[in-house]
Write a structure and sequence with these properties.
Elements (H helix, E strand, L loop, with lengths): L3 E5 L2 E4 H23 L6 H26 L1 H6 L14 H19 L3 H26 L13 E2 L12 E2 L2 H19 L8 H18 L8 E2 L4 E2 H32 L3
Antiparallel strand pairs: 1-2, 3-4, 5-6
Helix pairs in contact: 1-5, 2-4, 5-6, 5-7, 6-7, 7-8
Length: 265
């Protein structure tokens, strides 16, 4: 498509970085507004620090994971590691360090982790949606060749996708998926029965839907068990199982606490 959105002399605005920044900014603004409307007691400084440290750790983790998956390429061209604007972030690589840093920060400052995690989870899906639009413009995360009428042909020589053949628009599949998860979880947030439910449901839904979208991906991204599963599919399976376990476990703990409060034997 259009890897470079704008060009002023030697100055370039790359689509990938642009949409990631826009998605993060929108998610951050919505998060601040939601926190102000909620009963969560947290200062603006804590919110700013939490977003900064979490975003930084998630960004570094997602880039490092991408580099490790494509290590043979970056070993030959090490300076390419720093060209973030061209694409190359893995969501699952950023999820674990981002969640760990957020958890550590909230524990250190005595903040309610599960309440904030529920509030932020739909916004992560929204940010992912914007990020995938950036992928579409850049041509990364492209799909397999297809004869379906909605196949996309990339012709720009700067694109990272295969050129001049119709491909599954997997970037748009994932963008629509993130947007759908955002709206669903935003609606469900008003009906949740225990803290942590939205967070774990987000991980479950994204892991399952991403697993199927991966089947249409055609870009090199690392595989497990030979060529049976992509790296993201393997991680997704583990996350889906873990999420289901935590959903059932936390629901059981919630019911147990309710029974205890009501005096039931």
């Amino acid at each position: 498509m259009y890897p470079i959105l704008f060009q002023l002399g030697n100055f370039h605005i790359y689509a990938y970085g642009f949409f990631i920044v826009v998605g993060f900014a929108i998610a951050a603004v919505i998060a601040v507004l939601k926190i102000r409307k909620s009963n969560i007691k947290i200062s603006f400084d804590n919110v700013a620090d939490l977003f900064f440290y979490t975003a930084l750790s998630a960004f570094l983790g997602s880039r490092i994971f991408f580099v490790l998956i494509n290590f043979d390429v970056y070993r030959q061209h090490p300076l390419q590691i720093f060209k973030i604007w061209e694409g190359g972030l893995v969501f699952y690589g950023g999820l674990i360090p981002g969640a760990m840093v957020a958890f550590g920060y909230m524990r250190w400052h005595g903040l309610p982790f599960w309440k904030l995690a529920d509030l932020i989870s739909p916004l992560i899906a929204l940010g992912l949606s914007f990020g995938r639009i950036g992928c579409f413009f850049a041509g990364c995360c492209y799909g397999k060749e297809t004869s379906l009428p909605w196949g996309i042909v990339f012709k720009n020589p700067d694109s990272l996708a295969r050129l001049n053949v119709p491909l599954h628009p997997t970037q748009l599949y994932d963008a629509a998926n993130g947007l759908g998860i955002f709206f669903f979880l935003s609606w469900l947030s008003k009906k949740k029965t225990f803290d942590g439910q939205i967070f774990w449901l987000f991980l479950f839904l994204y892991s399952i839907t991403r697993f199927f979208i991966e089947m249409f991906r055609g870009d090199p991204r690392g595989f497990l068990l030979g060529d049976l599963l992509s790296t993201s599919q393997g991680i997704g399976v583990l996350l889906a199982i873990s999420s289901l376990f935590m959903l059932f476990y936390m629901e059981k703990m919630h019911r147990g606490s309710e029974d205890g409060c009501s005096g039931n034997p």
